[in-house]
Amino acid sequence: QQPVQSPQAVILREGEDAVINCSSSKALYSVHWYRQKHGEAPVFLMILLKGGEQKGHDKISASFNEKKQQSSLYLTASQLSYSGTYFCGTLVYNFNKFYFGSGTKLNVKP
Amino acid sequence: GAGVSQSPRYKVAKRGQDVALRCDPISGHVSLFWYQQALGQGPEFLTYFQNEAQLDKSGLPSDRFFAERPEGSVSTLKIQRTQQEDSAVYLCASSLGSAVILGYTFGSGTRLTVV
Asked: How confident is the model over B95-106, as pLDDT tens digits?
């Protein structure tokens, strides 16, 4: 039930772009994205509901392809503050259960 | 309060000892969740409260784990006879309504180390 995230880790230079993917083997109702810095709480970034929507704020955006049961998080012109571990969380149809992926570690270097 | 508050921040327990972890959610948040996060992994669901009612405890790994929220605000996660495999960060999260629609606000967690 746990979604699969890829890649597991990314190293970027400041200003570069990155894409983090989250896919599920089950039909999804919604997808959440969170960022967690070392030793801190996960921080909510955005939620995407069924319907194939796309959202974004600042230079971080995400898409949700309901048919493919996957979501992607796009980070453009990355900043040092983007470093951390990104988790997707998924709500599976008919199970009423919410599962987090194992995370993608992003390291933005100057 | 302004955020979800958890205490203690760190806890070292000897194997076999009982521990109690506290969560103080955002005032007015109806939903409260406990998650367990192992090193390098995503959070895993333990249990869920709506007000004082524990609606889902399917994620509790054994009957040594017990959670309560008697007055619908502060919650306590108790682990009896701790084992080494219980070592993890325990995260509490709250939400005003449906977390899967509104998102979770997490506390900073309690890092439990069982020696």
From this structure: 887 766 778 899
